[in-house]
Here is the input.
Amino acid sequence: EALVETARAAYRTNAAILPVAGAQAAIQMLPRLSPPGKARILSPTYNEHAATLRVAGWHVEEVSTFGDLIGADLAVVVNPNNPDGRTFAPDELLGLSASVGQLVVDESFADPRPDLSVAYHAGRNGLIVLKSFGKFYGLAGVRLGFVLADEKTVAALSEMSGPWPVSGAA
Here is the structure.
């Protein structure tokens, strides 16, 4: 509970929060939240989003423009993006969230740019935000990340992650 409250304060959100073993753990669980459909990922980006969706039976399109995400059952944007550093303003992302079934914004690299974060809005209109503690603080071995979303989504992910989603040290 203290970890969740600390994350809530750090990310300035009232969303439900699930600590996980790094953002990668969340990336692997997210495709199982709903039946497979059409996923679009703003690309090029971190390959694991597309890989885990495909393994779960999703039809994945890697698209090169923000507008191409519109209409997807699930859209993924990494902000700031890895590897090219592209960024999107929160207003753009919030507008997109109304045009897709679910929007996953992976903010694993956003800690130095809090002005880009949509964490405050997590849980609204199907907006799921992923955070990674280790990248910014240089503690990748800790394997600590967070999912910020609505209560139902966090409850489903919590059920998938089991009783010990992070180590005691994390």
Summary: The CA atoms of residues 90 and 117 lie 6 Å apart. The helical segments are 2-10, 23-29, 48-55, 90-97, 133-137, 151-161. Strands lie at 16-20, 38-42, 59-63, 74-78, 102-106, 127-132, 145-149.
